[in-house]
Each structure stands twice: as C-alpha cells, then as structure tokens.
Amino acid sequence: MKHIISADQFSLQDIEAIFSRAETMETASPRSLQGKILATLFYEPSTRTRFSFETAMHALGGQVITAENAAGHSAAKKGESLEDMIRTVNNYADAIVLRHPDQGSARVAAQVSRVPLINAGDGSGEHPTQALLDLYTIKKECDRLQDLHVAFVGDLLYGRTVHSLLRLLRLFPIRVSLVAPPSLALPPEYKQLVPHAREYTTFDSILADVDVLYVTRVQQERFVSQEEYQQMKGSYVITSQTVTAMKSTARIMHPFPRVDEISSDVDNDPRAAYFRQAKNGLFVRMALLDLLLG
Ligand code: NCD
Predict the structure, then answer these.
(1) Helix (H) / strand (E) containing 57
(2) Atom of ligand 1 nearest to the CA of 44
(3) Residues labelled catalytic
(4) What gap in Å lies between CA 62 and CA 179, rounded to an integer?
(5) What is the tens place of the pLDDT at every residue in 226-276?
(6) Global pTM exceeds 0.70
(7) CA of 202 relative to ligand 1 center, distance in Å
(8) Does residue 222 have its Cβ closer than 6 Å to ligand 1?
(9) What is the pLDDT of residues 20-70, one digit of tens each?
C-alpha cells in the first residue's frame, strides 16, 4: 500500500490489519512518526477530515503543514497545475492528504507523487478513508460485519462517501438498500458493485428491518442549478418519530456535516452513532498514517 486512492484497493486482510491497528490506537499512541511531516492540501473545505488527519499525525509524534484553502492560494490562482503543486510539496512532506473538487484528481496527483498520497475526497468520486472509518464504526456498533442490512439514504449520485463505502461492503455478506429520489440515484458504475441492492424512493417500508441507516447530505456544491438543489434539499429527514419505527439495536450514521437530514432530537437516542463515528475517524486515520509511514 503506497497511495490511498480508492476503497477498491483494500483486501479483507488489509481491512483486518487496519482495524486491528485502529483498535490499538484507541488506547495508546505510539510516537512512531517523530520527524515526519504530513501535508494536508485541501482545494475544497473540510473540518472533520482535515482535523482528524492532523490530530492523528500530531498524536503519533509527527508534524503537519497545511493549506486549508489551497484553491485560494497564489499558486492555484496563478493557474499552477495540480501535478506541479504535488511535485513541489513532495520536497517538504513525507505524505500528502489531498481533497480536490475534480473526480479522478487523486489518481492524477498520485502519478507524480513520490510520497504516499491519500485521497480525502475527489469531487463526487471517492473518499476511501471515510469508508474505512464508516466500516470500522459498523463493526464496532453492530459487533459484526455479516447478516446486516445497510440502507443508504439521500444523495447517492454525488455522495462520495457512499461510493467508497459500497466498494468495501461488497466484500461482506451484507444486504444493501438504496433510498434516493430518482434524480439522485446511485450511478450505474456503483450500482453494478451491489447488483442485489434494492432501490427505493422512500424508506418507510424498510425502516423496521435495517440495522444501519446511513444518511447523507444533499451535496449542494455539485449542483449546477441551485433551484434544483432547493427542490432536492430536505428530501429525507430523520426525526425522533422516524426512529421509533427502527429496531432497538439499529444504528443511524452520517458522514457529516449534516444540514437538516437528521433533526437534533435524535442525537440523544443510543441508536444515533454519528458522533461516535466521527471520533472513530481519528483512530482509523492514526492507523493508516502509522501503516503508511511508520
Ligand atoms: C463528506 C465529504 O466531504 O464527502 N464529509 C466528510 O468528509 N466527512 C460528506 C459531505 O460533505 O457531505
């Protein structure tokens, strides 16, 4: 494992190794990355992903250089290519975490990077480290990665966290349901990964059966027309009323940020796993950095 570009690249053994390392990280932080430098290069805004990578690096004894608004920096404004930027940052950092609005950009960047490059979101393409922390959360919360029914709700067209998580889920005997309005349905290239997945436009008929309800934000920044976004926004809203129809052992997840997909009156329900999910991001990213650079 050199670069992390797509969730496709992980085998069952890789996942096991990452999760076992992440478990250790929950209680101990080895200072294994002393003297190493991580660059976080974000051409799109982020709080959780960037902070959790940076905190992970600090916790392992390493250091961080960051461009949280790389698109607004002088080089990008002057029209510098992503490849030149990556070549330059290669002189300063031992690994690069990249978020960029263009699908495929992480692959392009990795081609010219001598140091490990981690895709932290390439447009509506993928977000592989989020998928790992999501799967880690499912395993922890449900105590297993089999005989589960996972339903994805919301923007399955543009939601890159969904795209990456589906690539991991297909490695396990897990049933998948897809709930989206027709105009935000999962693209065929991802649908073919889960040929048995059933598609719905509302979640009412499956709520009582799901073990994990994975809720997503309608990705406003990917819409060409804001009018269309306004129509789609608020398509699905989870309230405490919704949750009463779910199993007591079910879990609600969300990659965050949430806008209005889950009302705050759900937060204190033990089935609301999204804050624990965000915390797991730190342990999984510590494990990944340690495996890549340690
Ligand atoms: C997600 C993303 O950036 O794709 N956020 C995250 O990294 N946790 C989801 C989103 O922005 O809706």
Answers:
(1) helix 48-59
(2) 3
(3) 48-49, 78, 99, 127
(4) 41
(5) 998 998 888 899 999 999 999 999 999 999 999 999 999 999 999 999 999
(6) yes
(7) 23
(8) no
(9) 999 999 999 899 999 999 999 999 989 999 999 999 999 999 999 999 999
